[in-house]
Amino acid sequence: MRHFMSIIRPLLAGLSRAALYLAGLGIVVMTVIIGWQVFARYMLNDTPSWSEPLSLHLMSWFILLGAAVGVRESVHLGLDIVRHVAPPAIQRLMDMASLGLIVIFGLGMSYYATTLAIGTWSASIPVLGWPGGVDFIPMIVGGALIALFAAERFMDAALDLEATPVVVMQEVS
Questions:
Q1: What CA–CA distance (Å, rounded) separates 157 from 58?
Q2: What pLDDT was estimated at residue 126?
Q3: Bridge partner list, 125
């Protein structure tokens, strides 16, 4: 299993980095859209009807992709005082229990979002002309990534491996 983890870790790191960049791109695009909406409303007196629903859709993407990266890098807020005073063996069990619950949560989120997407696919988002189920795709993908990255960290804890390395942004010179 250690060998498998050493093979799959670079793939998961690349997936995490791609999710982080896509989330960042989503924030930038949403900011441009909202900027255009404000300009059009106040300067052109013609508010684009598509800007708000598209911005909300982009927000769903960057929030859920960012949450998945946060799970992989273990940067979410937590109340760790009990964990830090516990012996290392208990800390490991607490980590595994927490990560196991996160895997279950991510899988559940993906499953139920898929159910919602299927159930609302025949409806339409009027302004964008998209099927209604498209709104749930970020939850499906985000839940799957959350489960995948939590499973990676669970395996690290189970095998007593070093924690998953954090994605570090490097300056281009």
A1: 34
A2: 87
A3: 130
